[in-house]
Amino acid sequence: MKRDYFISVAMAVYNGEKYIKEQLESILMQLDVQDEVIISDDGSTDKTLEIIDALHDKRIKIIKGPQNGVKQNFAQAISHCKGKYIFLSDQDDVWEKSKVEKVLEIFEEKKCDCITHNCDVVNSNLSEIWIESFFDYRKSKSGILSNIYKNKYLGCCMAFKKEMVPFILPIPNEIEMHDQWIGLICEKYGTSVFLDEKLIHYRRHDRNVSQMKHYPLLKMIRNRLVLVKAFIKK
Asked: 86: domain CATH number?
């Protein structure tokens, strides 16, 4: 059944030529003609923009990134999204064919403001599954205190209502992770659902911006104090 609204995909890119085509193709195939993909490019010097242009898809809109790190690059993309629901996307994963449909079904069923779905973690060429379930690996669940203590939000698996944007933006530059901020803000001002269906293949390789390892204890404590301060002020 055709939707009477459109959705936005907010993607932050920087020198993503190796995987961007495969990622975009996995997204575009499940979008309607009225949907949009907002790509904030943070000054790529490789063939990223050429590859995107070669797709010749009018749903893709490229904007100039702020060149101030991945958090602000995502904030830039989000600020240009006009859809009822905003899906976050990295430049190097692969979406399952049913991702958009299933996430939209949960939005309508649960009447929630933010959804984080599960994923598997794969190697660079998708030939090997390193982690079967990110949720099991991180013991993912909703809850403000739980996600301040240990972040279970994963940006590439998140979508939220456009009504959340005024609360989410601006994203404080001093915090560590944009996805943790978005998830916590959506819990503070709305409702959040964790969907235990693996709807993307989360690709890990030598150019990943995010890390899957713990910081030293003092840095972890500092990051949490900075986050809590910004969260309370919001």
From this structure: 3.90.550.10
Residue 139, Ramachandran bin (φ over 0: left; ψ between -120 and 50: alpha; else beta): left
Joined together, the tokens standing for residue 25 give: 């193709």
- The secondary structure of 4-49 as a DSSP string is SS-EEEEEEESS-TTTHHHHHHHHHTTS-TT-EEEEEE----SSHH
Task: Report pLDDT for 205.
Answer: 79
Q: How many domains does the chain have?
A: 1
Residue-wise pLDDT for 168-226, tens only, equals 999 999 999 999 999 999 999 999 999 999 999 999 975 555 555 667 888 888 999 99
Q: Which range of residues forms the domain containing residue 58?
A: 7-233
